[in-house]
Amino acid sequence: MRSIFSAFLLLLILLPAPLLAGEINVPILLYHRFGPSVADSMTITTPVLTEHLDYLKQNGFTVIPLRQLVNYLNKSDLKPLPKKPVVIVADDAHQSVYSVLYPLAKKYQIPVTLFTYPSAISNASYAMTWDELREVERSGLFDIQSHTFWHPNFKQEKKRLNPAEYEKFVDVQLSKAKKKLEKEIGKSVDTLAWPFGIYDEELIKHATAAGYTALLTIEARPVKNDERLAALPRFLLSNQDQGNRFIRIVEKASGG
Predict the structure, then answer these.
(1) Residue 249 has pLDDT above 50, yes or no
(2) Phi then psi for 205, rounded to 5 degrees?
(3) How far apart are CA 115 and CA 91, in angstroms?
(4) Going from the N-terminus, what domains does the chain have, and what CATH number goes with each?
(5) Would you state the pLDDT for residue 78?
(6) Cα dihedral 81, 217, 46, 130 in deg (nearest 10)
(7) Using CA atoms, how far apart are residues 25 and 4, in angstroms rounded to an integer?
(8) Residue 253 — pLDDT band, cuts 50, 70, 90?
């Protein structure tokens, strides 16, 4: 009996801590726009995006759907996450998501959650169309979710409007986006990315009342076991996050 107990203690010492404790460190990588050159701080060139995806594929990472991570956190799915999980999301539904990210998602067979503000779709020249959104969703690789109705800055709007007007404004931004996306895409929308990463307890309350169950920020750290579903952190990437900078983000975040 003593030898069995000693062997068990040795196993506890030798096993990696995250494996023993079931700890997770999942980086959510946030992209916006893509192109042949850097047009602004949110643009990532196609070669850099390809470098990111190549690194993940060649170094043991598994890109999982955001939905899988959320279900793990809310305990609706207790299946363990794969080794070195990572989540990829994109905000705004820029046209380059369709022309650049979509073909690469098909090539690498990776899931992407696309946070969309409906006012721009089929209206703004920089944005995707409803037909394009439906196409990427039908591929089975993209999950279309909400980024409010027209991407407001809630801090500015709170200063501009009186309390009653502000509450109404917030409710419209959250509920109108959800209803429009569900009507056009034909699937449930229950996840929201806060525009500019701005949120507070009042906004969380309104989002929950509108039917959102997971809310995402732009705090640069990995998702851990005890993370609030109302404020899931994401790494906002720029074109400078290449080479060793990208490696440090994903390896450190995943505990590597």
Answers:
(1) yes
(2) -60, -45
(3) 5
(4) 24-253 (3.20.20.370)
(5) 82
(6) 100
(7) 32
(8) low
